[in-house]
Amino acid sequence: MKITDVKAYPVWVGHRNQCLVKVETDEGIYGWGESGMSYRELAVAGAVRHYREWLIGRDPMQRGALWQEMYRSQYFEGGRVLLGAQSAIDIALHDIVGKALNVPVYQLLGGKQRDFAPVFATVFSSGTALIEEVQFLLAQGWNVIRTFAAHPDTGGDRTLWEPRASIGPTATQLIKLREAVGPDPVIGVEYHHRLNVAEAASFCQRLPAGTIDFLEEPIRDETPEAYEALRRMVQVPFALGEEFSGKWAFVPYIERGLCDLVRIDICNVGGFTEAMKVAGWAEAHYMDLMPHNPLGPVCTAATVHMAAAVPNFSWMEVFANPLHQDRGHYDEAIFPVQLQLDGPRFPVPSGPGLGVEVDEAYIQRQEFKFAEPPRLRKRDGSVTNW
Questions:
Q1: What is the dihedral of CA 17, 373, 90, 327, to 10 degrees?
Q2: DSSP tag of 89
Q3: Which of 1, 213, 221, 359 has its CA 20 to 30 Å from the CA of residue 59?
Q4: What is the pLDDT of residue 327?
Q5: Model confidence over 109-142: pLDDT tens digits?
Q6: Which pLDDT score is estimated for 231?
Q7: Phi, psi values for residue 180, rounded to 5°
Q8: What is the pTM of this model?
């Protein structure tokens, strides 16, 4: 079997772009992958085009060697753009191999270790609405809930964000939420790296023990020493890693015990080939995976296959839940075959490959739409993290 083409499709799906990648072979078997580098999909598509030039004619069954060649055969190896492209290609190659051998992808990774992948829901509301929506989800069987930092009062201007002003309202609503739902549900909060070390410590120190089960991305991750400083000041478990590309980015966070829940993104880290190495490394340090999954059916299916094949897994992110029924990311006109939620879990599929089909003719008719994430500023006009 030989690769005959590698196609990148940066295309609008729902309310954002996705970068889908298709790898074709001379035996008519093809595979789909996806890159996780949102808002810079054209850059990833350009990297895919570079890889395509020499991947054509190669054997897709040799996916591990191809991964090494993609990574090592250049001077400026790694990075989010290149590994975003590698991730998509690697996922597509695993889809091909699974189809060629007539087995699910998880059989290529060691076999199935669980029957379903648990998921968590995200609630963006604040105040009374937050408590009501979480109670609704709990009644539906969703017992792992991620909340978001409360937006400080800015007079209705959603482009303003004062990090320190958010600390009090967020801590207050989390304390009230825990009082309302009791000790059993898993409750976390996502701060989307909007704080500095002092602000993050101040926030955590306002929470009674047991208020939250994890704090996600309180500060940026470029400096592990900053997380070491924060760890010395607080005892809350950290959920980190969704932006990491390649296993080396995880080195200080796993080895120094700075990450308690590993937010690995299979579409950013380097696909199955790299994700399984990080999973084993995390297992050796008694850390569970809590995968990042903000994209569509291809990323979702790949994440479920990874979840099926590893022992150290907690819950994966999913965009849809009974509270938010926006299915734009999972548009069945684009993805006529895809994994389906069964309550707060994805059953592990049994068919060959990933178990996802993409209507290629449909996406070929779509156009790329330039989109940017929110640009946040403080009251003094300075730029702050989104």
A1: -50
A2: H
A3: 359
A4: 58
A5: 999 999 999 999 999 999 999 999 999 999 999 9
A6: 96
A7: -75, -35
A8: 0.97
Q: Are 291 and 87 in contact (CB under 8 A)?
A: no
Q: How many residues does the chain have?
A: 386
| Residue 313 DSSP label | B
Question: CA 28, CA 31: separation in Å to the nearest integer?
Answer: 10
Name the pLDDT band for 200 (thresholds 50, 70, 90).
very high
SS3 115: coil
Per the listing, tokens 């648990």 go with: 118
DSSP H stretches of helix in 41-79: 41-55, 63-72
Do residues 276 and 270 lie in contact, with contact meaning Cβ atoms separated by under 8 Å?
Answer: no
CATH code of 38's domain: 3.30.390.10
How many other β-carbons are positioned within 10 Å of the β-carbon of residue 87? 35
> What tokens appear for 359 in the block?
């209507």
Regarding whether 213 and 144 lie in a shared domain, the answer is: yes
Average predicted confidence (pLDDT) for the chain: 95
Q: If residue 174 lies in a helix (H) or strand (E), which one and from where to where?
A: helix 163-181
Does residue 242 contact residue 266 with C-beta atoms inside 8 Å? no
CB-based burial of residue 250 (10 Å sphere; 0-12 exposed, 13-18 middle, 19+ buried)? buried
Residue 240's φ and ψ, nearest 5 degrees, are -140, 160
* Claim to verify: residue 54 and residue 174 sit in the same structural domain: no
Instruction: Provide the token pair at 356.
Output: 């996802």
Q: Answer for the pair 329, 295: CB distance below 8 angstroms, yes or no.
A: yes
Between CA 269 and CA 248 the distance in angstroms is: 10
Phi, psi (5° rounding) for residue 368?
A: -75, 135
Start-end of H helices in 217-320: 224-233, 251-255, 266-269, 271-284, 297-309
Q: Which one-letter DSSP state was computed for residue 214?
A: E
How many domains does the chain fold into? 2
Residue 325 has pLDDT above 70, yes or no: no
**What are residue 197's DSSP bridge partners?**
none
Contact 307, 41 (CB under 8 A): no
pLDDT of the residue at 303: 98
Q: How far apart are CA 339 and CA 335, in angstroms?
A: 10
